[in-house]
């Protein structure tokens, strides 16, 4: 009997990434060529871009060794809602979520897939070191540590959305009705067998960050209001 290779969906949300998209396609075609035995599906989620991202995709899409699909959002909803839209569009046996700017290096995919073959349904990447501005490192580092102190779920330290989830986990996550969603929170909350793999987070390959301070604060708030009863308890005590 011969079985068909598993399909892996890559979910990549982007906002105005014309500077980096050509490099992303190049890297993906190089790295995926080294990972035989899978079919690949690329889900690009345009979170309201106004630059030349579409032209860049049109020019380079044929270099991707699999199916390419573009999900167009009607405006800029933010990275987390864009990830959710991408997950809803996936048809693969597993999904890998990554950023467009190559800070989530495709060279980690083999480690994800090895754990997936071992039976893990969530494999998240854990940053060993971050080549980013001091304020961002301090901001992220303190966020995860404070969040862990107050959250009602055990969210792993220094792990973002970069990682693999099985179809079963994806099916659970996409049924969640949250509007201000924190994907890494839901991913922990749903359970299943989970594990982390270490990696070094490089700098953004090209272009500027699209995560403004306001967007980062919104992300932190989604974490606190979604996964901790602290805000509710505080409000209750203040009310009393
Ligand atoms: N992004 C998005 N919508 C936004 C902000 C960011 O889709 O409103 C995308 C962005 O294009 C990138 C990923 O989310 O693919 C991570 O953003 P970025 O690299 O700018 O954040 P940083 O790494 O600086 O925290
Ligand atoms: Mg980045």
Total count of helical runs of at least 4 residues? 9
Mean pLDDT: 89
Strand order, largest beta sheet: 3-2-1-4-6-5-7
Following the backbone from N to C, one meets helices and strands in this order, namely: EHEHEHEHEHEHHEHH
Secondary structure class reads: alpha/beta
The total strand number stands at 7
User: What distance lies between the first and last C-alpha atoms, to the nearest angstrom?
Assistant: 68 Å
How helix-rich are the residues, as a percent range? 40-55%
- What global shape is seen? globular
The fraction of residues in strands falls at 15-25%
Hetero groups in this structure are: uridine-5'-diphosphate, magnesium ion
The biggest beta sheet is recorded as: 7 strands, mixed
- Computed CA radius of gyration, to the nearest angstrom: 18 Å
Poorly predicted spans: none
Please give the structural blueprint.
Elements: E1 7-14, H1 21-33, E2 39-46, H2 53-60, E3 67-72, H3 79-89, E4 94-97, H4 109-117, E5 122-130, H5 134-150, E6 159-166, H6 167-173, H7 183-189, E7 194-201, H8 213-227, H9 230-239
Helix pairs in contact: 1-2
The chain binds uridine-5'-diphosphate and magnesium ion.
Magnesium ion (MG) is lined by residues 99, 101, 103, 204, 209.
């Amino acid at each position: 009997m011969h079985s068909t290779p598993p399909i892996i969906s890559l979910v990549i949300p982007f906002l105005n990434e014309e500077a980096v998209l050509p490099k992303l396609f190049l890297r993906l075609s190089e790295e995926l060529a080294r990972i035989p035995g899978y079919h690949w599906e690329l889900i690009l989620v345009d979170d309201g871009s106004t630059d030349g991202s579409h032209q860049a995709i049109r020019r380079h899409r044929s270099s991707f060794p699999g199916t390419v699909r573009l999900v167009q959002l009607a405006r800029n909803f933010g990275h987390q809602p864009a990830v959710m839209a991408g997950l809803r569009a996936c048809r693969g046996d597993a999904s890998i979520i990554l950023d467009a700017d190559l800070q989530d290096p495709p060279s980690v995919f083999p480690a994800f897939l090895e754990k997936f073959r071992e039976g893990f349904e969530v494999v998240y990447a854990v940053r060993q070191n971050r080549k980013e501005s001091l304020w961002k490192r301090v901001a992220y580092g303190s966020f995860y540590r404070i969040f862990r102190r107050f959250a009602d779920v055990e969210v792993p330290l220094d792990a973002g959305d970069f990682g693999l989830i099985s179809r079963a986990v994806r099916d659970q996550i996409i049924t969640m009705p949250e509007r201000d969603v924190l994907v890494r929170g839901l991913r922990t909350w749903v359970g299943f067998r989970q594990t982390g793999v270490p990696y070094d987070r490089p700098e953004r390959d090209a272009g500027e960050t699209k995560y403004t301070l306001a967007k980062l604060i919104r992300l932190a708030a989604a974490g606190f209001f979604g996964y901790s009863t602290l805000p509710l308890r505080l409000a209750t005590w203040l009310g009393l």
